[in-house]
Amino acid sequence: MKAYAMVLEEYNKPLVKREFDVVDPPRGEMLVKILAAGVCGSDVHMWKGNDPRLNLPMILGHEGVGQVVELSEPWVDVNGEAIKEGDVVIWDRGVTCGKCYYCAVKREPALCENRWTYGISTTCKEMPYLRGCYSQYVYLAPGTKVIKIKDKVDPAVLVSASCSGATTAHAFDMLSPDIGDSVLVQGPGPIGLFAVAFAKARGARKVIVIGGTKERLDMCRVFGADVVLDRYSTTQEERRQLILDITSGRGVDVAVEAVGHPLAVQEGIKLVRNGGTYLSVGFGDPNGTVTIDCYYDIVRKNLRYQGVWVSDTKHLNMAVNMVLSNIEKFELLVTDRYDLEDANKALSAMENRETIKSVLIP
Amino acid sequence: MKAYAMVLEEYNKPLVKREFDVVDPPRGEMLVKILAAGVCGSDVHMWKGNDPRLNLPMILGHEGVGQVVELSEPWVDVNGEAIKEGDVVIWDRGVTCGKCYYCAVKREPALCENRWTYGISTTCKEMPYLRGCYSQYVYLAPGTKVIKIKDKVDPAVLVSASCSGATTAHAFDMLSPDIGDSVLVQGPGPIGLFAVAFAKARGARKVIVIGGTKERLDMCRVFGADVVLDRYSTTQEERRQLILDITSGRGVDVAVEAVGHPLAVQEGIKLVRNGGTYLSVGFGDPNGTVTIDCYYDIVRKNLRYQGVWVSDTKHLNMAVNMVLSNIEKFELLVTDRYDLEDANKALSAMENRETIKSVLIP
Amino acid sequence: MKAYAMVLEEYNKPLVKREFDVVDPPRGEMLVKILAAGVCGSDVHMWKGNDPRLNLPMILGHEGVGQVVELSEPWVDVNGEAIKEGDVVIWDRGVTCGKCYYCAVKREPALCENRWTYGISTTCKEMPYLRGCYSQYVYLAPGTKVIKIKDKVDPAVLVSASCSGATTAHAFDMLSPDIGDSVLVQGPGPIGLFAVAFAKARGARKVIVIGGTKERLDMCRVFGADVVLDRYSTTQEERRQLILDITSGRGVDVAVEAVGHPLAVQEGIKLVRNGGTYLSVGFGDPNGTVTIDCYYDIVRKNLRYQGVWVSDTKHLNMAVNMVLSNIEKFELLVTDRYDLEDANKALSAMENRETIKSVLIP
Amino acid sequence: MKAYAMVLEEYNKPLVKREFDVVDPPRGEMLVKILAAGVCGSDVHMWKGNDPRLNLPMILGHEGVGQVVELSEPWVDVNGEAIKEGDVVIWDRGVTCGKCYYCAVKREPALCENRWTYGISTTCKEMPYLRGCYSQYVYLAPGTKVIKIKDKVDPAVLVSASCSGATTAHAFDMLSPDIGDSVLVQGPGPIGLFAVAFAKARGARKVIVIGGTKERLDMCRVFGADVVLDRYSTTQEERRQLILDITSGRGVDVAVEAVGHPLAVQEGIKLVRNGGTYLSVGFGDPNGTVTIDCYYDIVRKNLRYQGVWVSDTKHLNMAVNMVLSNIEKFELLVTDRYDLEDANKALSAMENRETIKSVLIP
What we know:
The structure is a homotetramer.
Chain A: E1 2-8, E2 16-21, E3 30-39, H1 41-47, E4 58-59, E5 63-71, E6 88-91, E7 94-95, H2 101-105, E8 116-117, E9 137-140, E10 146-149, H3 155-158, H4 164-174, E11 182-186, H5 190-201, E12 206-211, H6 214-222, E13 227-230, H7 236-246, E14 252-257, H8 262-268, E15 272-280, E16 289-293, H9 294-299, E17 304-307, H10 313-325, H11 327-333, E18 334-339, H12 343-351, E19 357-361
Parallel strand pairs in A: 11-12, 11-14, 12-13, 14-15, 15-17, 18-19
Antiparallel strand pairs in A: 1-2, 1-4, 3-5, 3-9, 3-19, 5-6, 6-10, 7-8
């Protein structure tokens, strides 16, 4: 059998459609037919050559939902369900070693020193070649954590759980709002929308979103946001005042940064109450510095300024459950669908911010 | 090369000395020369045929410290240190799958559904045979988590970290006393002594031990116990009164059960303050029931009655650090050393409670 | 001004309508007109003389929502909002000292050694007499924690947050389900219904309820229960099998006991997965014992068996936010409304289990 | 009876010795004879007029240990012990309201919006005048949380628990090291020395201190530091390399900033491992800004940068237990004792950094 994939051969050049042999899965592996592959903002960064982890040529795509074609040996998913051919599955995009300090002693596998990621740290020069999701098929290596999806669900909708959903889950796993809390979300992209969903799912009472696009802010309302603030039609001081009004003058209990720009951090940490938490999730790449007043911004405020990096299987499981429980909302998130062959169009649209979430359908 | 091990071939019969071929370690494995093997209370239960997990013939011994003889491929320990031939190592006695609900979603690998244990769930019928520590050599399988020991330390002293130390660490990982807390430890055996050490290491102010043997209670004092109560020379009511006196009438903040008998539970939960925690660690085997008054013992008290089962690598690491930081105290714990060939004597001594901790030296 | 209240003068006898002088609030106090008073299951126990905390004659009623009539001095609510005459308020039924071990060192004010409760530990022999909610007015003492209600809401619906809501919140504050978890609720009364609501509000995926009344089980579905099991039309073994099927053979992650009977505990702890938590909330009074197998039920399972006793202001705040966010559902909870003068009818209906939640309207 | 106190009447001028009437304690208050008053670094800031909370004239001194002279009514300490005349006591320097969002909902009384502090936010213009510890007597107001000291202990040694000890305890209450962790402490003053003590008391394996004074670094060794680094005889790069060597190339698990200078923050956050925590405790006053790279310093590192502000009674209790358990070490901390009348000398010595901890003895 043959299959094609969209291959990144040279930075800043269009991905090239290449054909590969589809062989029997190597020992311990699983062959999966891709049903939907997510286009992530960081795919654009990789395409542009801004991510030092890459080894060309490679198949992009770290977000995937697929159907099991062939198992080399019996496989049980993370819930204890036996996986059979024909099952729909999603998987942790990162594969971890289980034996390093982070995995074994600190139980923070997202930080595993040996973690590798489908569609990021893989090359298609090596057997079995297909290790990215911009492809008709992918091979899942033995250490991959898989979740079998028993619900009938559109794979294109579920795929967002893979990366932005799981990473946002990581943030809320580190610091959950209490029931009744106020939560600020900065940036209404996929991470921000997941943040609204998680904040409401944990019982937050007032969820406020700051963003710059009306369509996205409207979508935040559908996801449960109580107040949305357009950063073009409000000043920073107006936003501050409004948030103080909502929070009896204190500031929010928790803020989630989903922008990836230092100006957001600079504004956001001042909107958190004393003793509150600022979760910075939006930086997938270096994007500058922020100036912090050690006394006023951090110590006197008793602030927790918390960075959030990638995710692990616990977080993927949270995100999958979130999507499956709110499927009608997350359908809205998928604004664009492309044939796999049109991956270059999808990347351009992402680069030009013409889409919230694009999905490739092989 | 040949090596011998002490093999359990028939329950309730003496272990038999058998010779095995020592081959090159299979792919991904490590061959380790045993320097010290601990004799655990549960070894006696296994010998007696009371543990349903066994598959005879098998080599007992789940506690071991050894020296690396040969590596089939490069191996890095859980701290990120490269392991070389000649290094002294200790390892997590349980090998977990990394992919099940407990490992991947709940991050509680001690509960892994596929966990297997050296010297418990292994048989010597299968290659590479040597999977227990009552042996001159052991093969460590690829998924084993290893800690390299850089300190000069008597292996016989360190070996106690493997099982009783790690399991006690699990209890204190679930619920750590606060600095200043009062802690009750029931039962001054290896788990109880580790519990005293952990309680003091976490800053407990008053550590009280109830036990029945003067030598053991004296050792508890060396480990830092502030008050020891002989259960033969005090009544239950006297002990209760004394503990209330020490704790301003409230009862202890935390109690650790390291006895394995329902009568200890029955006494102990009444000695915990409202809102406190009762950590039950001592039951390695079924040993009867306890009658709990739902209102008075649990709900009105706001009690946490917490079972503690085995341990994972985080806990082993805690226990290893505990022993290495208090090596002079833990030397006292090792009351008896036997030649490996005298394993049957060691088991009998353990059965007759003539020892606190016995260690086999191959 | 005069006001009347329903007074418990003799156990097992009807409450008596008595008139009291309404004076200016003493220093630091607030005079509140009762808008709705909840009838709690424990009111029946008190009426029957089964609660040792009482001091007759007294005005029952620890659940209340009211309107501020007069403030002796400025008062700010727990959110920092100034309270004015005419405001609608709810308050923590327990008043705590702030200075004991539980309040100041352990931050568990629900366990405060000096906690007293409106309508439970108060007598109407002492000034200012009106300290229970089966009354037209109540005086709130200086240490009372008050929440001002800015939403337009039916006071009869909100009143359930006071006791059953806050106590259930306490349980979920101790142990929150993770997003995606399975939760079992035993007993579909007010605590059970709040438990369903909290479980869903924290992101539980599968919420299963066991109960004995069709109407209550149907209401559980409205509150979000995914599976309801009638204990009259299913056997214990059938329920166990069904719950194992739903949870991939493991049992639920969290169970909440809201029955108050040992048989529920006996069944429930066996339905929790290894490493899971059993939250026992339902015992307001002594009601018998349970037999626990130390090894199988607790230690080998790594179970947390956690008692939950009353609540504090954090929990009241959680419950108030829960009701305000789900007001249509909680309207269903209030099955019966009585004039304050008919308090004896309401108590009888509660005793005969003819109601889920009854509320008195002065 | 008359008593004198050292009064701050004008900023930057010597404190003035003034005499006051000692009256019977007002209702709910306790009259305490000061046995020892600590001189805190922030006293110098107040003296210099750099703290906006002050209201002159006032008696400095927020750290005190004293002996009870007269009680206006019965008083029970936080452990439940009745306080009698003649008892030695220490108390939480901050008095909180118990009813605000921070006290009642978030259980973070250190952040209480109505918190006032002895010797900081008090004036001696108002009855009963004596509310600071640079005095022969102090009146403790009703809401003050008191700990009775039953051990025989030098009051001058215990006094350090009041402020630097309790504040450091707050840091370790927020984030406790695990047993075996590595901890970096920047700055070997009173907070830094307490940090070393707390890190060791929680089981940290490697405690590294960076400082600039040999005497202080030597004292850190006595307190348990494993490695001390003189910042004058090492470069920043040398320190980084050494810390990476100690921590298998990862960086420390936890760092505690006890310097109060942005350069320390800039250096310190780069020395923490991925997923680690940076606790900033040392800023008692505004002292500049730090430039943070959002991606490299925070997000990619998954860092927790946590500010720590003042303390509550839980923390005071931790600190008191810490001092009482390590009394010989903390004796070394008290490098200078002055007569109360020589308070100005003590402030000058503190200003000129000629002392670690000075104590005034009335």
